[in-house]
Amino acid sequence: MDDRKLKILEAIIDEYIQTGEPVGSRNISKKLDLKLSPATIRNEMADLEEMGYLEQPHTSAGRVPSDRGYRLYVDSLMSPRQFDDQEGLAAMTEILHSKIDELSYMLQRATRLLSQITGYPIVATAKTDGDTEIIKNVQLFLVDVEKAMVVVTTESGSIHNRIILIPADATQDQVDKVAKMLSAKLHGVEISSIDVALANTLSKIEGIRIDILLPVLQGIVESRRRNEEHRTYTDGAKNVLEYPEFSDSARAKELIGMLEEKGFIRDVVTHMEMDQEQDLYVSIGSENQDEKMQDCSIVASTYDVDSSHRVLIGVIGPKRMDYARVVSVLKDMKSVMNRREIKSLNPDSGAHIEGDK
Amino acid sequence: MDDRKLKILEAIIDEYIQTGEPVGSRNISKKLDLKLSPATIRNEMADLEEMGYLEQPHTSAGRVPSDRGYRLYVDSLMSPRQFDDQEGLAAMTEILHSKIDELSYMLQRATRLLSQITGYPIVATAKTDGDTEIIKNVQLFLVDVEKAMVVVTTESGSIHNRIILIPADATQDQVDKVAKMLSAKLHGVEISSIDVALANTLSKIEGIRIDILLPVLQGIVESRRRNEEHRTYTDGAKNVLEYPEFSDSARAKELIGMLEEKGFIRDVVTHMEMDQEQDLYVSIGSENQDEKMQDCSIVASTYDVDSSHRVLIGVIGPKRMDYARVVSVLKDMKSVMNRREIKSLNPDSGAHIEGDK
DNA sequence: TGTTAGCACTCACCTCGGTCGAGTGCTAAT
DNA sequence: ATTAGCACTCGACCGAGGTGAGTGCTAACA
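Output (structure tokens, whole complex):
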């Protein structure tokens, strides 16, 4: 595997990524300044095919990269194109300033922006660090008749809240009692260990009404579940139709359907990452776990929004996606994110209020 | 315009809705048990075309309904097919039991279910009753270091909340003071009238720190804005690709793009309704405000989730959509909704907690 | 007078053969 | 090791001809 072969392979993949058409020897001979004739290129191409980096759709067509070819390209061939869209960077910066409790809002805006910049569908999801969500603090307030809000702060730093219905005849006093008791007793408890048995135990404490306690506990459990489930966003599904590999509408429909199936797409994107230990992951065609994804590639990256929130953003495209560009966009986003940290703790409130009217 | 013409028109539209192909006289002659020859049908068709109910794509093709034809069909011709998908009804019932603060969650599930049942894209949005959101109550709690939660209850009954960042050196006492002041002063105030001037006025009150007050007010304004913007959901965009009228991928891309543009689709669906005063609206092709929607029809309906929450659900499809079926589904949904009311106030908490683990 | 049979006509769509051209693999010359 | 030359492959494109569904019109019919 000499250097020349690598150069040729890179040129072929570059070209194919751009055009989507099988690329021929003549084309490469011209584009590459190696002063080689098409015939020589052809020989090299035959070799590369034998080695499994290229494929031929049919005898008299040009060559197309194989998954293995893309992998080599991504790992060591491609030249990271400089991404320098000032406007995009500015928009990113603005989005990342979204305040701390607006994680979901931030994700939504980020998916939108990235899908516009890259021209691919985007998926973004908040990562949870394992199953163990340990309660740090529980608060409970009456907010309206029959309605109370329960707010759970976890050790991992996330804050869930939920409105619950409580009996109409519950007095402020009774609610306070429940609140005080929970605040004391639930510290350090895992959310997943909350169940009816616990409710029964707790309700033994003097003055605790079980009919207030139960909805509260239920609210705690659900607030967390909803949080997880909900925090997956996709955008730019329409971009799927941009690429000839999905011109077959059945295929396009399948992919768009997958993008709409939040749980599914979340799994795909989180599982793929389990394999490796970098912070930028690329999964190409057959490397994807799910076989429905075999025609797609995913480039994903994680971001630490702050000390306790980690986010995963993935770009989904055809195998022929513009890896160089996508990677550079995701990296730029990361650097913007790092600069962000300072600002987020210092929101310039006044100005905002006016602007929001 | 005699009765026979109407029967023929209905048959033509029924047929066209089913097949999507221009329908010919022979076809109708057979399908209809009027014992009329194709020639007669042809004459009638020519009349109907003259009257503007039918169109001819080209001379030697069959007839296709015009927007006017569809309108007549929807208003007085179509026979409301009985929808009776037990499974679907059960799922609806289950979804509608989602608890009161889970409006967004409910909407998401409803869009999903309806898109599956109908095979069309669905849009759902929470309606706000005008611009006037009057504050009933404001509460403020510290939930973590530097983080507080502000909860706004409005006269219309909706509850918004938001986590805000406050200065690290704010004491519980200072926060309480702000909370008490706001609770007293903001009652009856319109959210939209909150601005920096108000902040300045309020901060004059003894012991109020402006650097706590400002983020809180900002939080109030934003919580509401976010609420509005966010509560629009779409699902089933993939279904667009099911229909030959969108086999042109540019057209499909456009529509899917519109569905992803939440603000836009929300406008389309809310504006259309302004025209009329029923609770089930149908907008056909050119009747749509936005010209990008001229190839689509929308069937929409409003639902009162409870006394203070009204929701709008719209089904978007090609003009050739199966109006009868869609209308019946939306109506069934409404009847399920009515039965719901009682249950929602009586959540059976215990069982849920176990199930959720 | 409304209905129908018959007929000529239109037009999208399918199929089929032919041509074109991009691309290959192989061989022989450099 | 490289290249020129050449025969070959195969999808894409094109135009001609045939097919069939459907029409409008006219004249006959009940």
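Strands of chain B lie at 54-55, 64-65, 122-127, 135-144, 147-154, 159-165, 232-235, 280-284, 296-306, 309-318.
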